[in-house]
Amino acid sequence: MRGLQDKIIMVTGAGSPRGMGYAAALKLAEYGAHVAVSDLEHAKTRLVELADRIAAMGRRALAISCDVTDDAAIHACTGRVMDEFGRIDGLFNNAGYGSMSLFMQTDLDEFDRMFAINTRSIAAFMQAVIPHMKATGGGAIVNNASLGGIYASAHYSAYETSKFALVGLSKSVALEVGADNIRVNLVCPGAIDTDMGAKMPAYYAQLTGVSEEQSYQAIAKDAALGRWGRPEEVAEVVAFLLSDLSSYMTGAAVPISGGSPQSL
């Protein structure tokens, strides 16, 4: 893909080999970017393996442990990237957390945890990188809102509260930083075959009494394409939004749902 060669991109939440962050980091490197990947300390071994894979592609890589609920850790992470690469051209805010429950059975502390990880941490990361992007003439930010950021469904009240807030935050920031040649967009994936996505069939199976496989297939049939998405398919859209090919896009929330009716 044109428009990513030698760009410096940060990817958060990149520690799961089945995850969208991991897939995006590899895709960005494939298209010529140098990539700094971060996740929690317990994922450090997988992060280092990911960085090694990126380096084997001839790109520069950096693996950083970072708790996104810790503002100081976010600024330290950003500082390490600046020390290593000298600039930040792009950021994929992928770190996130999800759970499912009926609203009346959801502890209010879960709302706080969801907001801290899915909304506040992304605000903190954007505040950390935007000054560096301004100093070098611009940049691109992609935030992972999920389909839960643009439509509502039962059993996701805390999650969707945090993701709807993230969409509003991203659009507002896009308006503020556009004059500095900084673009802010969102990806809104639907049912993607990741570790987090795997929670859905298990939850609905327990709720309805069907098997997890039946629940998995039912979720797949909800999409026009009749299947779950792959992390690599999300990664392609992320790469496009971080590249110069999307230079006239900002404030967009892009569904990646296989034609889920709620996104059409």
How would you sum up this structure, described in words?
This protein has 264 residues and is of the alpha/beta class. The chain has two domains: 8-190 and 232-254, Rossmann fold; 194-228, no CATH class. 45% of the residues lie in helices and 14% in strands. The protein contains eight helices and seven strands; from the N terminus they run βαβαβαβαβαβαααβ. A seven-stranded parallel beta sheet has the order 3-2-1-4-5-6-7, with helices on both faces. The protein starts with 7 loop residues before the first strand and ends in an 8-residue tail after the last strand. The mean pLDDT is 95.
How many E strands? 7
List the domain count as a whole number: 2
Low-confidence stretches: none
**Strand pairing plus helix content: what structural class?**
alpha/beta
**Helix/strand order:** EHEHEHEHEHEHHHE
Strand percent estimate: 5-15%
Percent helix range: 40-55%
Q: In the CATH scheme, what's the topology name of the largest domain?
A: Rossmann fold
Strand order of the biggest β-sheet = 3-2-1-4-5-6-7
The gross shape turns out to be globular
CATH architecture of the largest domain: 3-Layer(aba) Sandwich
CATH class descriptor of the largest domain = Alpha Beta
In CATH, the homologous superfamily of the largest domain goes by the name NAD(P)-binding Rossmann-like Domain
Mean pLDDT: 95
Output the number of helix runs: 8
Radius of gyration: 18 Å
Query: What is the first-to-last residue Cα distance?
Result: 27 Å
Give a short account of the largest sheet: 7 strands, parallel
